[in-house]
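Student:
Attend to each token:
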Amino acid sequence: MTNLNSTHDPQLRSWVASANAAGCDFPIQNLPFGTFVPNEGGGPRIGVAIGDQILDLRAAGLIATHDMNVLMAAGPAERSALRAAISQGLAEGSSERADWEKSALVPQSAVTMQLPCRIGDYTDFYTSVHHATTVGKQFRPDNPLLPNYKWIPIGYHGRASSVGVSGQRFKRPKGQIKPSPDAPPVLAPTRKLDYELELGFFIAGGNALGEPIGIERAEEHLFGVTLFNDWSARDIQPWEYQPLGPFLSKNFASTVSPWIVTTEALAPFRAKFERAADDVQPLPYLESPANRESGALGITLEVWLQTAKMREAGQPPVMLSHGNAAEAAYWTVAQLITHHTVNGCNLQPGDLLGSGTLSGPKPEEAGSLLELTTGGKNPIQLPNGESRGFLEDGDTLVMRGYCERAGAVRIGLGEVSATVLPAA
């Protein structure tokens, strides 16, 4: 796990004034990485968010590549040294200010954000025991939590090609739906389109095929964390998912936030990862003192909805749920990486791991409409008189995340949003 250093100093301030504003997602203590294209033209560039600006790392002379996957492949010491150099150059009194302000600083409003990196492979996990139990009751009332859940991090391989960046607009998917037990299936657009509140974990340096990553070194292979929305078609899902798992109900779209908050930036917000003494304890290969001491991520997560009518009336989104990843996850990211590779599977720089829906123990902490509305049976009543059991065409779903703790500067993950379009 990353130790605290000078880049986390709560007294540190930047010469970029907007980075010092209260509640800013991107203060100098954060420094998340992303890929952007200037609106005035040019190819993709690697940048770090600072306040409402972006530092172009190659223009600042800090890196020699525009390829984020190459940067991600660097070792932990090299990545840490780059963060330190960025922090020093952006700090008040820095000798780099004149040059960087002139040639390397770009307003976020003047760029288009891209996917943070090339996503070679994408694996989605199922880390919230609260989500697994609540959803399991709807699909299997007599057996909601399958016996392997508390022993093994459950996951499936998703579709990397349909992962889009925040601002994505996607068409309502079609698939086979079985309207009743006695009726044959029909091909139709989903009527139960749902979101899933997740974190995305981007892999840094990978491992050779056949060489597992031990849990003691798992986080050396983690570049950072993003917000992630794994859209789901709940009426397509139950007909197709047995015996091999999700397929068309999941692979039509997933949306990721443009900024990757690094493991090092999250160091002040780590929390103990503990299971109750009478609960199932992980097998030895999934256990380590460091994972128990600080394996959990103290990230506050929110879900907001803006319908087409709200947007037309100039009304802002309304909050649907609010929770914390540390209280939701039954498995840590180190355990996910270790289990993913224990059979020799080779991860590569830019691979994406989804946490699975991060629902907390309280009803208002649910990370999907499937849970919030009990499968659509109890629709949410919105302030403008509309209601939602599941998402409708024109709806925009926004997820936000941030970290707060006494004695540390608040940092944010930004937001991830996407809008539902009518089916083709």
In short: The two ends are 47 Å apart (CA to CA). The chain has two domains: 6-113, 122-421. The domain at 122-421 is CATH 3.90.850.10 (Fumarylacetoacetate hydrolase; domain 2).
